[in-house]
Amino acid sequence: MVSKGTSKIAIISDSASDIQPSEAKELGVVIVPIIVSFESESFKVGEEISMDEFWRRLTAPGAPFPKTAAPPAAAFTAAYDRAFADGAEEILSIHVASKLSATYRSAEMAASAHPQAKSIHLVDTATASAAEGLLVKRAKRLADAGRSAAEIVADLERAIPRTHVIFFLDSLDYLKAGGRISPARAAIGGLLAVKPIIDIVDGEVVTLDRPRTASKARERFMELVGASPVEELTVLHAEAPDVEAFRAELSARFPAIGALKPGIVRAGAAIGPHTGPRGLGVALIRS
Q1: What is the mean pLDDT of residues 102-124?
Q2: What class does CATH assign to 162-286?
C-alpha cells in the first residue's frame, strides 16, 4: 500500500500500535503482527486472534499469563517486498519502542539485508499502543500530503519526545503477574487500594503517581493531562465499561481536547497483559 502523495511512500508498522485490521485497511497502512502466546498456543495478533478473544483469554479464571514476541525478520522482509512490488518507492517502517520489544530489531534486520535497504527508513517510536498509533497515522497524513520520507522522519523525531501514554490502572495484579512489580509491593499496594498512573517515557514504563483511591487517581490523571497544551489525543482503555463517560468528562473539562473530537482505542496485546482490565487513559502528543 502506497500513499496518495507524489513520493509513493508505504507506511508499515506492527500490531503493538493497536491499529485494528479494518482501520489499517482504511488508512492504507500495513500492520505486521506481533505474536501472543497463552502457554502452548501462539497467535498472530490481529490475524489469528481478535481483540475480543484476547481479552476473553486474558481475563478467564485461572488463565495463564500471556507472553508476547516480536514478528520474525522474515515477516518484515515479506511486507517490504510487497510494498515495493505494489509501487512504493520508499518505505517508512514505524515501530513499538525497542526497549519494550524486539520488534524494531526484527524490522532492522530485515531492512538492512534488503536489496532496497536505502529506501527503507526505520523509526523507533519509543512508545507503544495508541501512542505508537498516533505517530503511524501522523506519518500517513504527511505522506498523503506529499511530504518526503526524510521530512516525515524528521517530523516524527520532533514529535516522539512529546508523545505520551498516561494511563491509570484499576489493579496491580497484572503488573505483578507480568513481573513488573514484586508480589510484596503488589500486596502492599492492594491493601492501600493504590491506583498507579503510568506513562511510557523513552521506551520505558514509569510511574507518575500512586493515588490511593480510584477517585483520587482520576483527579490526578486529569491534572497530568491538562498540564500543557495537546496537539493530538485519543482515549485509551483496557475493557473499561465507562470509557464513553470518561471521554465526555475529559472533553468537558478541557474544551481544547473536546475540540479534537478524540477517538477511542482499545488496548491490546502490547500493554493489556500488564494493565489488566478496567484501566483508562489517553495517548497524546503535546503541542
Answers
A1: 98
A2: alpha beta
